Amino acid sequence: MFEKLRHLGLSENEAKIYMAMLELGPSIVVEIARKSQINRPTSYVQIESLKKKGLVSTQIKGKKQYFMAESPDKLELLIDSEFKTLENKKSELNTFLPELLNLFNSSDQRPHVKFFEGKEGVLALQKEFLKTDDTPILGITSLDNVFEVFPEFENTYIKKRVQKKISSRTIYTSKKGPILKESDETSLRESKYVEPNQLPLGIDITVFKNKVAIAALKGKISGTLIEHEEVADSFRAIFELVWSKID
Are 60 and 148 contained in the same domain? Predict the structure, then answer.
C-alpha cells in the first residue's frame, strides 16, 4: 500500500504517517509517531506536509491537538494537483517555445548528421528518401554494389518510391553496361550510365530536399545522413555538372 500511495505522489514518510492516521483515527503526534515508527519531529513535518495537501485535519480536545486523516477520497486532490502542475508547465513551455525553436532553426548553419549501421541501418536510411515531398531525388550509385547488398532493390525500394510518386534522376555504373532505360516512365526515373572505370564508386549518394545520404555498400555497410541546405545544394551542383557531361 505504501508504494501505491507513493505512486500517487506521497513521500515514503508521508505514506507511513497517512496510513498510521487512517488506522488510529484522531490522535496526538506521539501516538502517530509510535504507530508509524517515525520520530516525533519528523512526524510533525510530515503531518504539516499532508495538511497542505488536504489529507489531514486537526481538532482541539482540552489542551491537546489531535490530527486525523481525511477520507481517502481526498487522494484525488493529488492527481488534480499534478494535473494542474502539468497544465501550468505546458502553458509556461508555450510562452518560450518559439524562442527555443528559433534557436533550433538557427542551428541550421551547422550540419545535422545521423549515422546508420549495417544493412538494416541503410534500409532505415532509404526510408528517409520516401518521406520527401521534393522530387526528383538525385542519385549517384554503383548498381552492382546496390544489387549485391539488396537483391530485391527494384521490388522493394523502387516499388515504394513509385507508389509515392517520387521521381528520380540517377547517374549509375555497372559492369553489366547500361542496364537501365534513359527514360523510364514506369519507374519514374531518368538515368545516365557511366563506365565503372570512369567513376569507380564505393558509395551510394542520394540528394533530396536539404539532405544528402551517403551509403557505404562495400566492406562495413553503413550510412550517413547530412541535413544542411548548402551541403545539399553543393551536391546538387556536382550532380548537374556530371549529368551535363555524360553523352
Answer: no
